[in-house]
User: Fold these one by one.
Assistant:
Number 1:
Amino acid sequence: MSSFEGQMAEYPTISIDRFDRENLKARAYFLSHCHKDHMKGLRAPTLKRRLECSLKVYLYCSPVTKELLLTSPKYKFWEKRIISIEIETPTQISLVDEASGEKEEIVVTLLPAGHCPGSVMFLFQGNNGTVLYTGDFRLAKGEAARMELLHSGGRVKDIQSVYLDTTFCDPRFYQIPSRGECLSGILELVRSWITRSPYHVVWLNCKAAYGYEYLFTNLSEELGVQIHVDKLDMFRNMPDILHHLTTDRSTQIHACRHPKIKDFLSYICPVNAYPNVIPLGTTKDKVIEILQPLCRSFQSTEPKYKPLGKLKRARTIHVDSEEEDELFDDPLPVPLRHKVPYQLILHPEVFSMTTISQNQPEKLRQSTGCFKTESTQNSPLTNFIDCEESNSESEEELEIPSSVQEDLGPVTLPQQKVDVDVPQWEVFFKRKDDTTDEGLENFPSSTETGGSQSPKLFSDSDGESTHISSQNSSQSTHITEQGSQGWDSQSDTVLLSSQEKNGGDITSLNKGAYRPKTKESIPTSQMEQNVLCPKDTYSDLKSRDSEITTVPNIGEPTTLSCGKHIPEKNRSLNFSTHSDSQSSSDFEIPSTPEAELPKREHLQYLYEKLATGENIIVERKNVHS
DNA sequence: GCGATCAGGT
DNA sequence: CACACCTGATCGC
């Protein structure tokens, strides 16, 4: 959480990422990115009133941030008062005091921050010196050095103050895996899972709104599978992202919001509930105590609602399989779901993963927590972990009853046709080029709107000017994003050539920026083959497959880190770049001198363990007893 | 009824 | 441990 109060000593008349208290008097506002903790007060009535009175007050942000912000009706009142500034374009702003007429000039330059789409750092230049406000940022080594506007005369500008995101300002975070490294790890893990069968699905447990688009687009592009999200209207003008997303649940990769399964019991409201599994450290009586208030037998004498929070701790519930379809009766006219998603849950942020191999999807969808399965053949009811996805703001506008929506859940893979067990891959490859977004307001899948699951390379949109491309989206800090950053072509060339040299695994990431027409140059048949016959294509996976056998144990979720979060365990896994590994030199990170660099095979082994839920004893993190 | 704030949760 | 949220309770307007 940012402790920044909104004002900088040098330029106290402007406010950045804070819109409350003292900031209500600001002459100009700046928003670095669209995360809630940087938007405090932004939609408060006090500020709204201020806007109505002070007609010269504006909010400055990147075009992508503006787009994302205005997607939410709650910020619509800002519409006429937001001025978007292009990345790396020094822009002069007059700071006028409306009461006295006093005026101050300031030049602001937006620098890509690599934190989430649209995220920027602000470089201010004025009479009180040059200051840099970083907001939340995630730049790879060397990226700052490549920012021309941070320099003048061949050297870095004389910066008076820097207001810095110090989240990882700690020696423990000496070595942070690059985005590229995280991506390749996740990518291979997801690939190894979903290529096992059409019923193996992955659920990405994304906590924040925005910031995972990099992962989505790259997974989608590499795997030829669109990512299922709840909403995508915020990306309607960002086809580079949009084309990799879908609201169609029949995909193998999900990043949708997950039902808060506390809803489950109160939704079905049975007469009685009998716990079949008693979680460690509690007793049957205690579980019953928790369950009872949610049953009709109890409610008749008791006031209505009792939060089910504690139910979440009951990790496993067993339900007779005969009853499941009754229990989870689907209010929507969709065919019965008989097939089973084998589920891999990834937490891209914390990246704690739990695999679930099950035979009954409904059970999977409804249980509470991924704990331990019973040793019998009976399928336990295994639960999910909440999935926060994009813009929560407009969620309440979704008129589909949440219980309906949620009950369909992210795991209802084969719901479209009862006997169509195999995803229709061909739809992934017939792609229209139109990038119009008509109808998106109704949140159809992009497949439905004529997009396809076929990966669209970022560079496809090069030159198109009718939309905001993710060129501006600073989520794109590395790899593809080099091309999509909207950085000048020189930087692209430099960066990409270094990648080329390295010839990493993340090939498509390079081609996106480097060869605009690559998509067309890939024979469709070949791409299909990659998807349909993954084992041929990824022979290394074959061996892995043999290692991960049948129904894996669902153990303690293992934590592995990706992105900015680096828990102990992860660091102990030494997630760093191997010198001959797949990482490109552009993702270079400082190595911890005494650190051992893991071999790729070793990493892969670890991924497998993680995917199957087996414990890896690398460094024992004391979980609860 | 709305918001701000806090506590607690993932 | 931090992030980026979310939910629920309480209080003030």
Number 2:
Amino acid sequence: MEKKKRSLMWFRKGLRLHDNPALLQACEGARNVYPVFVLDPWFLAPDPSAPSPGSRLVGVNRIRFLLESLQDLDTSLRNCGSRLLLIHGSPISIIPHLLTKWQIDELCFEHDTEPYAQERDAQIKKLAGMAGVDVYSPVSHTLYNPPDVIAKNGGKAPLTYQSFCRLVGKPPPPLNDPPAKIPGPAADLNNVDITAVVPSLEDLGYTDLNEQEFTPHRGGETEALKRLEDSLADTKWVCEFEKPKGNPTAFIKPATTVLSPYLKFGCLSSRLFYARVQDVYAKGKKNSKPPVSLEGQLLWREFFYTAGYGTPNFDRMVGNPICKQIPWKDDDKLLSAWRDARTGHPWIDAAMVQLRKWGWMHHLARHAVACYLTRGDLFVYWEKGRDVFDRLLIDSDWAINNGNWLWLSASAFFSQYHRIYSPITFGKKYDPEGHYVRHFLPVLKDMPKQYIYEPWSAPIEVQKKAKCIIGVDYPRPLVDHTVANKECRERMGAAYALHKEVGGLPQQEQVDALHRRLDETLNNHIATNETTKKVPKTTMRKTVGTTKGKDTPSSKRQRKLTDYK
DNA sequence: TGATAGTTGTGTAC
DNA sequence: GTACACAACTATCA
């Protein structure tokens, strides 16, 4: 009889038993399966200097969501006769160590297309190969395998959603059943230091968190499957779902499924989600279609995964061949005001509070705040906003987050930069009473509804009665939207025009030329405007920022403009 | 090479 | 609530 193998199932994402081909392979003909999760301080160690609780890279809400998911995974594994083996450290040193310590024959983990993971996994595969360990790394995080889609499209990622959808066929179905029994690890772990239980936030060093309002969303596969079935129970709702018709200010009962964090961590398989949506469609008479339908949302995920995989430097402006080179402002004051919900535009600030406290907000709220930070009002680098989202969202996903910031900043995929979300009327359209703003910005809870989206316009008597003096209890608006968005559109127009002109140059030269020429163009524009137009009183703050660090010609010129203002 | 359509804008008029 | 102007871009496909 053939000797039974010892396998190591390395969990990273894919924190589930259902539709998990790597786990199934690990169990196949195994004497021992070692289910491992590495608690990496790079992501988990507290950073007291971070702008909100959490590590340098991850907010405390997502860390907690992860810990809950691990707890649930451990419980499920124990129900199958196994357990989760948690180890503190860096995967790149720990995994190869374990392969030797436990005399592993086969290493199994879900394929991951993110650049960070690609680099890490390539090293691990190399080391495993040198140790004579087989590696099995199937695609199960996404419906499709990005390189397959790219190959089908002649070697490059499709840049429009429609062309992507035409390209891909029906996705593969999920695997039938999760394993009922999993061979346990050997009793003797050969002195490997295993963490006895899933740590709490306190165990990881997060203290004084009592005041922090946590996300209402609980992590884990069990919760994911329950939420999936709850969401899909309403056939009519599923069949009629159209994303743009959702209400971004609905927070007691959000307008979407809120399954994204479970997809992010792989607590829920996208293939199962897709298949179950098809089941529901089959029960209904007719259903909405991509891009707005529920099915369409899953395909957006695939679209951005493919673009992210097929585009060099997808997460940057410079060196990214599909990204418009735009001379955004590197202005920490504007950025931190936006990040810390101090823009003075209640709709924007309320959404940013929801992001910090819940780690989640509706897709359209994300649109609104991203547009505001970049091409709509503040003209700050999209990468800066991306970093804030990346840290705070519980569903933060490299490809989707970068893809959406490229989209919203009109840097790639989308170019209708004249379409700008108003920080005043967009929220008001959905929630004229201002319930959402009052909930997330209690300082404005007594502001009459006619002023709730523009509290600076309330007479001082009204502000006193509402116990909210603008400029004291709540900030004045950072910019006058009418003025700021006009200037932003001018900047975008100039950048687009120059882009056409210098598009053929190598990227760095392109960027230099753009910055140079845009400075000149804008100086003329703004100087002309300043002499012909009276800026409304509410402009108050500078809408032209300064460049940090080195005294570039550009920053000098910008400062001069600011002084002039 | 020209036509077309594109996740998800706002303000105004009727 | 629907239609249109606003001012206008570009990947894709015939």
